[in-house]
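Contributing new records

If you add data, match the layout below exactly. Sequence lines come first and carry their own label; structure lines follow with theirs. Keep one chain per record. Anything else will be rejected by the validation script.
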Amino acid sequence: MTNVVDLLPSPQDIIMNDIDFTGEQDLIESIESLNKLAAYYAQLALQGLQLDSIQRQQQSLLAASRYLASHTKEKATFHSTQLYLTQLINRFPRLKPIFTVLAACGQRLKYVLTGEQDGLDILLGNEQIEQALQQVQSLMSDHQTHLIFHALDLCLRKKHSNSLVGRKLRILWLGGDSYSGIISILHLLLNLCHETGLLIDLHYTDSNSSLIREAEQAFKVHLTNQNRLQITYYDEVDLSNGEHNDNLGVESYDIVFAANKLQGSHNLLYSLVTINRLLVSNGLLILLELTHAPLYFDFIFGLVDQWWSPVDGHRALLSVEQWTTTIRETGGFETVQSAPSSFGNALIVAQKSISCKILQTLEERQRQAWLLFVDDNTPNIGDVLPPLLPSSNITLINPFGSNPEHIRFKIEQMMTIYKQVYIVFGCPLSQELVNDDSEVVFTKQEKHLCGTLVRMLQTIQQAEPRNFPFVFVVTRNAQPGT
């Protein structure tokens, strides 16, 4: 039976799906105008500024201010700047959040350069500015996000609409301090569930606990009277710290999505390795990340130290090529495709490998183990199955050659050593395996195998491990005469 992850489009299919970002035309058309407005603020900030008053850590912001100040030959005054700001708001009304944040940052730029004010306090210390900043982040990615999920929706409907009934798609959404654009995605997913019979588990994360609560209340309105789309919320997820991700199961997700979330990660490679660990084989990592930005962004995000590289003082943004290289360095993604947009966000799609040779080298597979119950009558299971398994930690037990205490000890030992254990009970109770007149022998064999299975389950139950083993019973003809 095909897993739902195998029905998802490939990275190339998503990239080649003609995802058109021109719906964000005002963002593109406004770039030069916003750069000019930023130049005005730069001129005002630099007027009468004493070089010896500038903080050492603000040298990158100072260099950006000087460069932007020369971007226009016009001499700015406070009045001309305010007049130009009003004109731009009237011309691009949808972009008012950008103007609000840029004006707040530009008017305080001088004080950030001298260390009298902290850039982070300007962005997050005022409720109105903080809300506008969240709206800016939505403007940057909401439209593109909708197009991406629309492409996934179309692919599943066109190619597999009759194969989705009762299947479950598991999505991990790494929130980026704004949830407004997700509501349209919820409606899209709800329609997909309703019309195809698909089930969806959406796990939504955000490090801001108050935003998580707001998102839960906002989403609840749209999820009433249905049970096909379920959302779980997490506010203590840190991809760069494995200890904070215990609630997210290893190899539990078919899709991991993030928009402008990973760029500022303390350890990007480790974060990507963590994501790879959370994905099932063949699962998709879908990222929207800023790979180049307009000049005026330096006066918004440049007020925060993380915007600048500690190595050379330039922007710390990764290029598409650097993203692709870093994703490949994880060792677990087999395919990586990318597509830039005119505004600055690049779409990056990576697919986790399905190669057993590659998967066996990954940490999550090395922390897994398989316990196979096979007897002399079913050597084919013990011979054929191990090479197909995605882990090399494999133990074979013959239920007729092992006493109950040994089996109990082995199960407890494996649950202690490994983070996840898989148990395959592959001993068929087929009457063909004994003589036709050996009913007593068959009954004894049946009781022994059933007793072994029950004791195995009791051992697991009594141990109460953090991660319960997955148990697969592949016995054929479990009752006499069937």
